Amino acid sequence: MVRGRCFGGLLLAGAAILAGFGGHPLRAGIPENALANGRPPKAGAAAAQPGQGATETAIPEFVEARRLLQLGKSDEAIALLQDLEQKQPATKGLSHELGAAYYRKGDYANAIAALKKALAENPSDNEAVQLLGLSYYLSQRPAEAIPELERVQTWYASANVDAAYILGICYIQTKDYAKARAAFAKMFDVPPDSASSYLFTARMLLRQDFGSVAEEYGRKAVALDPKLPLAHQLLGELYLYESRIDDAIAEFKKELEVNPGNAAGYYKLADAYSRAQKFDEAERLLQRSVWLDPTATGPYILLGKVLEKKGEAQLAVRALQRALAMEPNNPVPHHLLGQAYRDLGKNEDADRELKIAADLEQGQSAKP
Description:
Layout: H1 15-18, H2 54-57, H3 60-70, H4 74-87, H5 94-105, H6 108-121, H7 126-138, H8 142-155, H9 161-173, H10 177-188, H11 195-207, H12 211-224, H13 231-241, H14 245-258, H15 263-275, H16 279-292, H17 297-309, H18 313-326, H19 331-343, H20 347-366
Helix pairs in contact: 3-4, 3-5, 4-5, 5-6, 5-7, 6-7, 7-8, 8-9, 9-10, 10-11, 11-12, 12-13, 13-14, 13-15, 14-15, 15-16, 15-17, 16-17, 17-18, 17-19, 18-19, 19-20
């Protein structure tokens, strides 16, 4: 699965890239897996930021507010700054600090109001522009985010990756696909009209659930470079999601002709064959995937499922136990292992695994 909403990933319009940035909200470089916890990038670090001078940085309330933000105490930081606002409303840089604190809290409406005020006071406050663009973006207002993020791109000529990604997503959401492609080309340092730029944009389009445009861009990538690795695989993933099994199989086969050492390609082709109930072909391909990459859990899980369907429950147990050794908190292999144990008449073991799977699923559902 590869899409944001429908392909099972995250993506409140790319919030996945945002979480996990430390310090400056739009520093160059992305730690992957950037979006694990869904929180926005940190803002308001103790050091002076672009557009802020040493005088504002030295204000004790600002220093303390930033310390509180670093400790995750955004409400306390905001209360401190609001108290300062009541006592000394003309304090230089106060709107900036409040905007950064509201942003860190995830209160984007108040962040937008404060950051707009900060920019009215100091139009050269680069960080306020960045945070304002991000606040619009995270408020699902991409059209308003674009002008601010375009300004960020102007300042950071050396391809600020974070800004390029978010700007590209905003272009997708406003259906300006050509500009999205240019943003992603800049992000990956490839020519905007290259096959690679179309492939990268197609991948982002899939994540945003723009399947028809993603197919068009994937086809364009293949037309420009028929031997471009992962282009056929992307199309295969799209077709597999749309239950176009024969089309998916054809694309995955083409991918393996271009890229025969691609372990994921064998796994995805096996997935397509398993959905077509061609379990022998699927098993053969999964063995190849495992040989090429024994660290991936997906092939072991699918192998367990395929072997159970073939009536080889004992072999299925071994494959699923291997998957669980690598990923013990994944409910899927626990559930499949319960089914395999049931086939073997090991009802106590089956009940244990099915309960673990149910508990893990419930725990995942309970997470915000």
